[in-house]
Structure formats: structure tokens, C-alpha cells
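Example 3.2
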Amino acid sequence: MAGVADIRVVRCAVGSAVAHERIVRRAEVNVRRAAHADHDLLKAIADGDRPLESWVAISLDVPTLVVDTSDGYAPGVEEIVSFAGQPTASSAGCGHRLPGWASIRPVPFVPPRRGCR
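Structure, written as C-alpha cells:
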């Protein structure tokens, strides 16, 4: 993908207590999360087999922004969108920017213009 897109990682981060609370809540209310094995994860945490602190974040050699989502977003949505839309030196002038209406939600895939990397 790096050859056709400017990759950015936006990593959401919270403390262990908040993460645990959210896993419990999602496991209780969202049946679509069954593929994530939340109940197994909660059991492993309770048994001491998998502490939340053992989680390892994605590590890529690309621009990364850590967002504290403990209570809202810090930095805020405008800063996140700005970070995500910043072109790299190799794509400057190609028009690879987030549209003004974009926010933190899935958006349709738009292929890059020809000749841009």
C-alpha cells in the first residue's frame, strides 16, 4: 500500500482500567464482536494469563498519532483529521488529502489519481 497511498496510523490509547471496562461493555452489548473472542479475553485477564499491559501496538515506520480516548479525543478530531490528511513529500501536489467532509468514520475508497505515489 505504501506505493499507492500515504499511510498514517491513528492509535487510540486508554489506561488498563478503562480498556477493561470497555471490553466488558462491548462483550455484553455487541453480539457482532463474537469474532473478537472478548469473553475468552476477559477470562484470560481474570485468570492472570493475559494482562492488558501485554498488548503490543502496531509498529510501522510511518507517521503515527496516539490519541487518548479516555474521555473524548485528545488531540481533538480536527487535529486527527489534519494529521491523517497531511501529504508526504513524495505525494505533495497529487491531491491526496482528506475531503473537507471527512471525519472519524469509514469513508468510501477512492483510488489515487494516475501518476501519484
